[in-house]
Amino acid sequence: MNKLCLSIISIIISVLFLSISSVGFAQSIKERFKERLPQIIELKNEGIIGENNRGYLEFVGAKKKKENLIRAENRDRQLVYETIAKKENTSAEKVGKRRAIQLRGLASPGHWLQDENGNWYKK
Question: Per the domain annotation, does 1 fall within a domain?
């Protein structure tokens, strides 16, 4: 085989590898979100956490519980926002703010939310 053929094959293999690893990456994040969801809903129902105006979970009062869980959730959200931002040629911050608006619409009654001005309120 000549060098051009080897180069083309290498590029194709690299593209396929990146596609497969991106799917695996997305799937693993999705599984982690699903795994954490019951605990997050429980914390929201207890009024311990809420959805802030940047698309992340935040402790509403002084009581903090399962901080590692919240950090892990926010870390995965950040990765998702960054991935979407790259695809849409925008910033992760803008993606997070758009997601915060969606989350406000999906929130259950009694859950804490933060408006655009940073004020917390119960839905």
Answer: no
Structure tokens at 101: 């608006």
Residue 60 lies inside a defined structural domain of this protein: yes
Give the amino acid at 99.
Answer: R
Beta strands 112-114 and 49-51 are parallel
Residue 69 domain boundaries: 37-122
How would DSSP label each residue in the chain? --HHHHHHHHHHHHHHHHHHHHHHHHHHHHHHHHHHHHHHHHHHHTTSEEE-TTS-EEE-SS----HHHHHHHHHHHHHHHHHHHHHHTS-HHHHHHHHHHHHHHHPPTT-EEE-TTS-EEE-
5 lies in some domain: no
- The answer to whether position 19 is within a domain reads no
Query: What angle do helix axes 67-88 and 92-106 make, rounded to 10 degrees?
Result: 120
What are 69-106's pLDDT values in tens digits?
999 999 999 999 999 999 999 999 999 999 999 999 99
Domain count for the chain, please give it: 1
